[in-house]
Amino acid sequence: MRSLLIYKYMHKLSFGYYTGQIDLVSKHNLKEFVANRLDKGIQSEADNGNNSDVLIPSGIDQMNIVHNIAKTVSEINKYSKNDVEISTYPKFMNLLRDKKLNTYQGELRHPTYAKRLWNEHNVHLDITDQDRKDLLEGKVDIYTFSYYMSNVVTTHEVKDKMSGNFAAGAKNPYLKYSEWGWATDPDGLQYYLEVMYDRYDIPMMVVENGLGAVDKISDDGKIHDNYRIDYLRMHIEAMERAIDDGVDLIGYTTWGCIDLVSAGTGQMSKRYGFIYVDRDDEGRGSLKRMPKDSFYWYKKVIESNGKDLA
């Protein structure tokens, strides 16, 4: 979670979390968007909350983050009746802690923006006090997530942009990138684990983590994928550091155990597995399986519960 966030400030505005698909860069009519979507969402927070700030994420789920964010914010402020500022995630979390999470009135308790949508579409729901209590108390028992890479957002004009999966960002000169533009950033995994555990205080599990790469059979008939071993070793070491810092990390699974067609690119040549499958991007091959060097290395890691990473 190193990407910049935009947050909205208004006097006597609720400390909420305004959500919605806000792809600011692609808006052809920003003035209309601000008037009909953004300001209405902010006003909804003002009508339903009792604090002072609203956070607007730059990018949602697997949507692209906003590039040239300073320019975008400047354009928004030409049309909005509110003041938009650029903030960082740590700054937002400090505000959240200062106001105490158990008195939070934003989306973590109920999606206040939904009330605006219900009113716009003439939807009426019979919500009881018990319903509200159940929604407040209902939560997951563990926090699971996938981690492959980190992204960079900058206020400066950049020429070197990298993209991985559905997210794009500026190139980080301090990191190495795969053939598909995915950054190797184990420190980012440690950072995310510690920030999320500090926020939710429930057990965590990394359910996907791995390196997509081109694997070739060497002259000795084997596949020496030391690059994959290095990637996994660094991320396991990052998890160990997070555990030492107090994170309750209960599990870890890689992606994946065997080569398969990449969901992101539709390629067989983008391989993640410990086991090589004889198949190419055109569907040709015998489907013969062959353990890679990483297979035997990870077997040793599992047997030692992560103690032997050599």
From TrEMBL:
UniProt GO cellular component terms: cytosol
GO biological process, one term: carbohydrate catabolic process
Pfam families: Glyco_hydro_1
Transmembrane segments: none
GO MF assignments: beta-glucosidase activity
Domain of life per record: Bacteria
Xref: InterPro entries: GH, Glyco_hydro_1
UniProt keyword terms in alphabetical order: Glycosidase, Hydrolase
SUPFAM superfamilies assigned: (Trans)glycosidases
Annotated family: Belongs to the glycosyl hydrolase 1 family.
Protein name: Beta-glucosidase/6-phospho-beta-glucosidase/beta-galactosidase
